[in-house]
Amino acid sequence: MAQSSTGSLRTVAHGAAQPVVAAQRVGARLLAIDALRGLAIVAMALDHAAASVLVSLQAESYGGLTPQLGNWPSWVLGLFTNIASPIFWFLAGVSMTLYAQGRLRKGDDNRTITQFFLIRAAVLAVLDLTIAWLVWRGGTPYTHVLLSIGVSIAIVSLLRLLPAQAVAAIGFVWLLLYQLALPGLSAHFNQSVNYWQAFFLYFSYETFPATEFSILGWGSLIALGSAFGTLVRRAWFLRWRNWVLIGAGLWALCVTLRLVGGFGDLWHYDTSLPLYYWLIMNKTPPSLTFLLFNLGIASWVYALFLARPRWFSMPFFAWLVTLGQVALFAFVVHLVIYGLLGRGVDLLPVAAPGVVKAVGVWLIGLAILVPLCTWYRSYRRGHPNTLLRYL
């Protein structure tokens, strides 16, 4: 299963790598961002592949409650999949700024750019409430992440008209105030929560529709990403060693908050639990420790990408760049792919451990997803004025 998937991906790599090599001369910093976003898609795909065959890769807590982890392969893979959401949300904001800068250089005004973002937000909401919802397969209901991202993009499309320093300040205050409020929100909403409370403030798998990514919980990452997008081309942020330090700083703050307990750490480690539970943090709603831990890892991966720009001519990294350059398309399509594969596995007498089954479906899905994204990227470049430009 894995061998056939790898072979299919290798076939696509040669075609995908050629434009990447050319683009490398423009600036490895942008390819590094694309590759990092692509890695988030790959991690997300594993999580959703596992869900499609009803396998849990949980390595996080929800609502401040102690989780019941599976076997060690499942939670180790879960730690990998946990990087997806923080990276995806933060880089959504970075992409907004990079897009706006590019359009301004081509003569567009801010009104036209804001209109684009608002239409994109609406398109994401429509896709979320139709295709994504219909094809979802998992042990829990679909939680409408694209709808939450779309609403957050709409909010930040207006915030970005402020000076970058103001957007950064709003993002930090937004993040910190939410963390201050989180223990109270958890105590209250774990008892009872309606849809709109869950959508804006908390989460719920019981409401209709279910919702996991609250606007106030996650939207600050898009605001902060938008502010960072104004700095991403500056020389200091192009030095890989600086990103090693940034990652170390984020992890140091995470460890400090974990040791102190309280602010920013909704689920506290209990010494009666196995030591590896120390790596388990509250994802939903997002605790600051969870964000710091995973964005610290992302910083180190970004440092590696900046330090090794030649890697982007190699197949695996070319695939990451391709996925990252059409991330919203990849998100919608991968839900379709894994929804179909999961239903297909149900019809076959597949006898394998859950984790093995999940990884096999994941690799098969990637073997389908990468060629589709490669085709879509080329098609969108050749047809820049169609509705597809909003993905």
TrEMBL record:
Segments traversing the membrane: 35-55, 75-96, 117-136, 142-159, 166-189, 209-231, 243-267, 287-305, 317-341, 361-379
Domain of life from the UniProt record: Bacteria
Domain Heparan-alpha-glucosaminide N-acetyltransferase catalytic residues, every copy: 29-236
Cross-referenced InterPro entries: HGSNAT_cat
Pfam families: HGSNAT_cat
Keywords for this protein: Membrane, Transmembrane, Transmembrane helix
Protein name, UniProt field: Heparan-alpha-glucosaminide N-acetyltransferase catalytic domain-containing protein
The species this protein was found in: Caldilinea aerophila
